[in-house]
Design a protein that fits this description.
Strand order of the largest sheet: 3-2-6-7
CATH superfamily: Uracil-DNA glycosylase-like domain
Number of strands: 7
Radius of gyration: 15 Å
Structural class: alpha/beta
Number of domains: 1
CATH class: Alpha Beta
Helix content: 25-40%
CATH architecture: 3-Layer(aba) Sandwich
Number of helices: 7
Largest sheet: 4 strands, parallel
Distance between the termini: 35 Å
Strand content: 15-25%
Shape: globular
Length: 179
């Protein structure tokens, strides 16, 4: 659901990030739209309390210096791609003040079908959180299994890390991208 109220009409139109993907990706993880911290850093899941990188590290058994959150961002991406994962967002651009998904307005969708057409090895799509999952009807029509993951965002404090990890690991296993 894209909100159309005038609350953010003075907010600048924000542009999302390019997808992180490779031609052999098997799982596409879709967030909603990058946070303020992610846009400023031009990095997916840049907020230090976001559990995205620790979740992937735990699924792939990467610890210590090899843990993704301990690597520079440019070194994380080849690891993600080597494990067959692609990262993108459902929204290409929007108006929003702050980082909350509830503040997203006038959003335009990314060309998900175009990315999927370029990635014939994809086995599944996973929505990272509720705002992204609002578009499951669209992604389900793309012909792949679609899953809803509990959000890795620090705003999702109702799920413990272990509970999130269990849900994420199950989806990664089904897509064949878990270690």
């Amino acid at each position: 659901m894209v909100r159309t109220s005038s609350r953010n009409t003075l907010a600048p139109r924000l542009q999302g990030l390019a997808p992180v993907w490779g031609p052999h990706a098997r799982l596409l993880i879709l967030g909603s739209f990058p946070s303020v911290a992610s846009l400023a850093a031009q990095q997916y899941y840049a907020h230090p309390r976001n559990q995205f990188w620790p979740l992937l590290s735990a699924i792939w058994g990467l610890t210590g210096e090899q843990a993704l959150s301990n690597l520079p961002y440019a070194q994380r991406l080849p690891v993600v791609q080597a494990h067959g994962v692609a990262i993108w967002d459902v929204y290409a651009n929007c108006r929003r003040e702050g980082s909350l998904d509830t503040a997203i307005e006038a959003a335009e969708l990314n060309d998900l079908a175009g990315l999927i057409a370029q990635t014939p090895s994809l086995r599944a799509i996973a929505h990272n959180g509720g705002e992204s999952a609002r578009h499951m009807k669209i992604t389900s029509a793309l012909g792949l299994p679609v899953y809803k993951l509990p959000s890795s965002s620090p705003a999702n404090a109702t799920w413990s890390f272990e509970r999130k990890l269990q849900a994420w690991r199950a989806v990664f296993s089904m897509a064949g991208v878990a270690s």
